[in-house]
Design brief:
There is one protein chain. By secondary structure, the protein is of the alpha/beta class. The chain has a single domain (32-311), classed as Rossmann fold. It has 14 helices and 9 strands. The protein has a 9-stranded mixed β-sheet with strand order 1-2-4-3-5-6-7-8-9, with helices on both faces. The relative contact order is 0.11. Pfam families: Ndr (PF03096).
Length: 367
């Protein structure tokens, strides 16, 4: 009798345990899929783009669309930033769209000899197809280096599609004759890997040969699609001027970011001088080097959070990493009341939430 009751109890419990296990497996699989992202190959008028989407495809607010730097792809360029713990407050509220330039995604097949790589203008013209594919009307662009230039081209040509821009290590200028000659000399005396390394890192970082530098050098030199990387790099070096000034610039809020002593520090400062100071913030980060999204994700996350708040998409939250005693109270520079109004550029040393004394000053984060 007892044995029969025990057997009945066991047979009744098995389906329940199996069902619970299946539910947990489904939930775990969904979380893994969400973390890894959904990969898509999107047809555009100028070729196919590899795109990875994270999060739900809600169109109630703009997507965050990223574009990577030269010598890198979206995963290595942005994953450490967007997987950063404090960034999750933003990530959970937005859809992330990571765009890889043609042939730059991990594991991409090498282009054949003689392949004509699309120009920077053409690559920028491929982005509207991504928005149409996912049914997004607008985006907040986040670009680094080459990607910052491409997103700038896209924003200038499609102002109604871009609600905000975060441009890291932007260089809006074409290469002059001196730069062109220097690049020609460098291309003869230095390998492609070393050329790109000088683009990504400061001389101090290269001399220090940190683990980050060594890992990037090894990854680039051993890339199976090195031919594609070279084509993308050469196309960027043939770019044209963006031709922006205070009377002809972006129609959306912009945050310029550059690391102190980064290769493009002077270029970013020059870009800032051409921008509308009422809609532009300039963040120069100490101890960040050439890749602030990797070396200082906490500080960049904090700045990005306030940038998003200034656009009216997130409620205000307490400052965490950026000490009020060392930097401007960011709440004085970003709108917290849900309005889309913008203030002047960020400045270190403002007291009591006062506005910075000059729109040309920058906030140097040294904490």
């Amino acid at each position: 009798m007892t044995t029969e009751m025990q057997e009945i109890a066991i047979t009744e419990e098995k389906p329940l345990l199996t069902g619970q296990a299946e539910a947990k497996d489904v939930e775990l699989a969904a979380r893994i899929l969400l973390d890894q992202g959904q990969e898509h190959s999107i047809e555009t008028p100028h070729g196919v783009l590899h795109v990875t989407l994270h999060g739900t495809r809600t169109t109630r607010r703009p997507a965050i669309l990223t574009f990577h730097d030269g010598g890198r792809e979206s995963k290595s360029c942005f994953s450490p930033l967007f997987k950063f713990e404090e960034m999750q407050e933003i990530v959970k509220n937005f859809t992330l769209i990571h765009v890889d330039a043609p042939g730059q995604e991990e594991g991409a097949a090498a282009y054949p000899s003689g392949y004509q790589y699309p120009s920077m203008d053409t690559v920028a013209e491929m982005i509207p197809s991504v928005l149409q594919f996912f049914n997004f009307r607008t985006v907040i662009g986040v670009g680094v280096g080459v990607g910052a230039y491409i997103l700038s081209k896209f924003a200038l040509a499609n102002p109604d599609s871009v609600e905000g821009l975060v441009l890291v290590n932007i260089d809006t200028n074409a290469r002059g004759w001196i730069d062109w000659a220097a690049q020609k000399l460098i291309s003869v005396t230095s390998s492609l890997t070393e050329q790109i390394m000088s683009h990504l890192f400061s001389q101090e970082e290269l001399s220090a040969s940190t683990d980050l530098v060594q890992s990037h050098r090894e990854r680039i030199s051993k890339a199976s699609n090195l031919v594609n990387i070279e084509l993308f790099w050469k196309t960027y070096n043939s770019r044209r001027d963006l031709n922006i000034d205070r009377n002809s610039t972006f129609k959306c809020p912009v945050m310029l970011v550059v690391g102190d002593q980064a290769p493009y520090e002077e270029a970013a400062v020059e870009c800032n001088s051409k921008m509308d100071p009422t809609t532009t913030s300039f963040l120069k980060m100490a101890d960040a080097g050439g890749l602030p999204q990797l070396t200082q994700p906490a500080k960049l996350t904090e700045a990005f959070k306030y940038f998003i708040q200034g656009m009216g998409y997130m409620a205000s939250s307490c400052m965490t990493r950026l000490s009020r005693s060392r930097t401007t109270s960011l709440s004085s520079s970003y709108s917290m009341d849900g309005s889309r109004s913008r203030s002047r550029t960020l400045s270190q040393g403002s007291q009591g939430g006062q506005m910075p004394p000059s729109p040309s000053q920058t906030m140097e984060v040294s904490c």
